[in-house]
Amino acid sequence: MLSNIKLPLGSENPSRFVQEREKEFLGNIAWFCLAVLILASLPAIYYQVWIVLFAPCSFVFFLGIVLYLTRKGLIIVAGNVLSFITSLFLFLICWMEGKTTGAHLYFLPLIVVIPYLIDCNNNTQLILHILHPTIHALWINFGDIPPRLPQISAEVQDLYTIFNFGFVVFLCQFFAYLIISHNTESTYQLRTSEKMLRTQNEELVKINQELDRFVYSISHELRAPLASAIGLGNLIREEQDVDEIQKYNDIMVQNLMRLDLLMGDILKYSRNARYEIRRDPIEFEKEIEESIRQYQYLHAGVEIRTNIQQSTDFFTDRYRFRIVLNNLISNAFRYQNPYQSPKEMHIACQVDDKRALLKVRDNGVGIAVEDQTRIFEMFYRAGNQMPHVKPGSGLGLYIAKESIQKMSGHINVVSQIGEFTEFTVEIPSMQPVG
Amino acid sequence: MNSVSTSSQETTFSKNGILFYLVDDDDLFHLIHNRFIKSQLPDAEIVNFIDPRDALTTILENTQQPGIVLLDLNMPYMTGWEWLSAFAKQTDLSTLALNIFILSSSDSNQDRARVKDYPFVKGYLVKPLTQNDISKIIS
User: Fold this and answer.
1) A416 alpha carbon, distance to own chain's centre
2) How confident is the model over A43-97, as pLDDT tens digits?
3) A278-428, which class in CATH?
4) What is the rounded CA–CA span in Å between residue B74 and residue B25?
5) Which of B37, B106, B108, B124 to substitute to test the interface with A, most A CBs within 10 Å?
6) Which residues form the Histidine kinase domain (chain A) (predicted)?
7) How many CB pairs under 8 A join A and B?
8) pLDDT value at A313 more than 60
9) Mind listing the domains of chain B with CATH numbers?
């Protein structure tokens, strides 16, 4: 029931994913800004006006700051710095070259990309950041800025204008592509995480309901022996007859022992649900002998036959395997038919390198057909009218089944009332990891 | 067959003794509650049922007779809730002379809240019975 709890939350945190994507995006844009500045300063370099190089060179310094801020997760600050610095340096380059080379056209892709660098929820910030390059661009275009480059021939000038124009168009397209693909991927990722969150949520709700039911049943089952112990204690207080007191006392102790058994089983159950499965070598002969020895002294007079065939090594979780084995063997002892003679138990086991097939058969009281599917349910106790059998915790077979499921095996029962009961367990051998 | 009368040695119901029906699958609680009720109300008549289905047929025949039903919830064949639904379906609740109480080992709010679905149930008691419970039942 609770065995399938897994909490993949955190491993694929959607908001964290989006942040990672934004970091990557901002980093890319920052490198493109550097490229824009270098392209814009090419004409000046051609005419050996080295002072212009100051702009892309100092930009490299700010690029470092922007990338550092991005890595630190301060994406909004990094975007602000990037937008402001690029705009400023581009203006400086244009101002030194004059408008004849068309370097101010590079403001266009910059303006396109700015809304993606700035926190769009803050309108004032956004408007300021767009106004900044816009004013620069207008100033260069319409302001009276003298050409500072040495006499530039009309041919070269045309060539640069065409070159820059082409690049601006390319950059605009490229930015648009980058933005759209970024958006598409983000949307896709958000949808996937949303879907995943929904399934996880449904699973958690289901687990929660199961947990509620579990706690409810447990509280019922734990309270019953406790309530009878309290009731007996009250009777003892009122009772004068020493024999009666003795009798009540014995019943009380029995009940407390039942409670103890139940607590042990609940612990086993929670261990099974929580602990990772381990890979241990299993020697069936030894395990079965050990298990029989544990219960044999309590139930004398049962003839036990074993037929164990293990020729290869077999691996599974030893702790869980013992839970299953002990449960089946102790049940076979407990539910013997008092009127049957001889009382028999037959344990057969066939092991190869792929799987183990274990059969535990007794000629005891048997299980009614309508109970056979239900005996594996939590707190289901079949056949309440068996005066010679002390009631169990109602968890034994339930835990056995859960344990077998953890070992990727399965369990079946065949029985006829008053005749026999046979449990069959099949467990695959665990392969080494990796 | 499963209804065992442990009401002292007399076979007839005494006029002034209160009649109790105990419905519980756990016979240990029959012992405990019989003794306890006897110690508090020596005149009480107690009829025990291990199987809730037997209790249903017997009690349905005696709904006009004043008495008290102490009903467990967690039972095989028929839970206390199923018992109450079956009982309500087969009897005229307006002439009901019986006082029905739940007597369960569960003290969960879930069960306490569910009693409200059966307005003819007089109360919810948690095992084991106490003197307080007895005085509540009698009043």
Assistant:
1) 44
2) 888 877 788 888 888 889 999 998 898 888 888 888 888 999 999 998 888 888 8
3) alpha beta
4) 8
5) B106
6) 217-431
7) 55
8) yes
9) 3-138 (3.40.50.2300)
Chain A CB contacts of B31 under 8 Å are: 251
The whole-angstrom separation of Cα A409 and Cα A12 is 31
Cis bond before residue A342 (omega within 30° of 0): yes
Q: Cβ A220–B105 below 8 Å, yes or no? A: yes
Domain boundaries of chain A, sorted by first residue: 14-197, 220-273, 278-428
| Interface touch A216/B110, C-beta < 8 Å | yes
Q: Report chain A residues whose CB lies below 8 A from the CB of B49.
A: none
Q: Which residue has the tokens 């995480």?
A: A193
CB within 8 Å: A231 and B105 = no
Domain at A220-273, CATH class = mainly alpha
Q: What are phi and psi of A424, to 5 degrees?
A: -120, 125
Q: What are the CA-CA distances from residue A362 to residues A251, A263, A404, B92 (Å)?
A: 30, 28, 21, 51
